[in-house]
Amino acid sequence: MDYECIMTEVRGESALKTGLITLNRPKQMNALNDRLMDELGAALLAFDADDGIGCIIVTGSEKAFAAGADIAAMATLGHMDAWKAGYISRNWETIRQVKKPVIAAVAGFALGGGCEVAMMCDIVLAADNAKFGQPEIKLGIVPGAGGTQRLPRAVGKAKAMDMLLTGRMMGAEEAERAGLVSRIVPLAGLLDEAFATAELINALGAPSIALTKELVNEAFESGLSSGVKAERRVFHSLFGTEDQREGMDAFLAKRKPAFKHR
Ligand code: HXC
């Protein structure tokens, strides 16, 4: 697929590399139109299917991760247009199919659908200039890609209500305090930190990485009992892998593990 609205790149020195996806509609502050979301979905699935790739990073520009769904493309839609086009669900959920860790490296505005895409990623690194918000209320709509569901789970009800009902933005520090982002990084070092994080993960065993991601999502999306049961099943099953033996033997022998399943 020839990409118009994103750029892709592969980086890394070790066996497993990292796939970088850069959202790239600079004139529109990376507003998310159908084309961009189709391309993002295709690039994510291609990296996910590539055995040479361990982690995927999604980033935008220094000014904007993404300023939301493309308002110009939505402004004249009627109810049936939105419904028929499968607007929102058609390509906004692709990121949830990805089994490998996805790191959002967020600088500048992450608003509306942009904030929702960041929340669908597994690790969110925020540059010190990052600004998050769900301003849909100011447009007379509500978030459409999980914002009303993921934001309260991420930051709690009170802050989610505050953000969603006023449409105000929050800066990186407030976002970190609230648990919306994993870490704040100086803007100039954002991508380096994202790649360093990916490298740490790429050195580990692929099955336990993929299963950990699945289990954390289970915690996020289901009740405690089913999550704990799922975790126990996975815990037991990993004792059938060479990586478990190697990881534990290496620890006891005080050497670095050489995981087979990368
Ligand atoms: C289309 C957008 C856009 C968007 C910015 N632009 N955001 N175009 N859709 N979401 C365009 C502007 O129209 C402008 O184009 C150019 O980008 C630069 O933006 P400015 O507003 O001039 O820049 P600035 O004053 O710095 O303000 C930046 C901003 C503001 C705070 C990000 O642009 C803004 O509030 N944008 C809208 C944010 C928003 O409401 N997002 C939620 C969308 S709804 P021109 O041609 O004038 O230069 C949504 C629903 C998700 O996301 C549903 C899931 C499917």
Features:
single chain, 262 residues, alpha/beta, 2-enoyl-CoA Hydratase, Chain A, domain 1, Lyase 2-enoyl-coa Hydratase, Chain  A, domain 2, 2 domains, six-stranded mixed sheet, four-stranded mixed sheet, binds hexanoyl-coenzyme A, Enoyl-CoA_hydra_C, Enoyl-CoA hydratase, ClpP/crotonase-like_dom_sf
How would you describe this structure to a colleague?
It contains twelve helices and ten strands. It has 262 residues and is of the alpha/beta class. The protein has two domains: 197 residues, 2-enoyl-CoA Hydratase, Chain A, domain 1, CATH 3.90.226.10; 47 residues, Orthogonal Bundle (Lyase 2-enoyl-coa Hydratase, Chain  A, domain 2). The strands form two sheets. Strands 1-2-3-5-7-10 form a six-stranded mixed β-sheet, sandwiched between helices. It is globular, with a radius of gyration of 19 Å. The site of hexanoyl-coenzyme A (HXC) has 21 residues, from α2 and β6.
CATH C-level category of the largest domain: Alpha Beta
Name the shape in a single word. globular
Number of domains: 2
Bound ions, cofactors and other small molecules, one mention each: hexanoyl-coenzyme A
The helix content, as a percent range, equals 40-55%
CATH fold assignment of the largest domain: 2-enoyl-CoA Hydratase, Chain A, domain 1
CATH superfamily of the largest domain: 2-enoyl-CoA Hydratase, Chain A, domain 1
Order of helix and strand elements from N to C terminus: EEHEEHHHEEHEEHHEHEHHHH
**Strand content range:** 15-25%
Unreliable runs: none
Give the count of helical stretches.
12
Task: Characterize the main sheet.
Answer: 6 strands, mixed
Strand order of the largest sheet: 1-2-3-5-7-10
Write down how many β-strands occur, each being a DSSP E stretch of 2 or more residues: 10
Radius of gyration: 19 Å
Mean pLDDT: 94
> Structural class of the secondary structure composition?
alpha/beta
CATH hierarchy: architecture of the largest domain: Alpha-Beta Complex
Cα end-to-end separation: 27 Å
Keywords: Lyase
Pfam families: ECH_1 (PF00378)
Family: Belongs to the enoyl-CoA hydratase/isomerase family.
Protein name: Enoyl-CoA hydratase
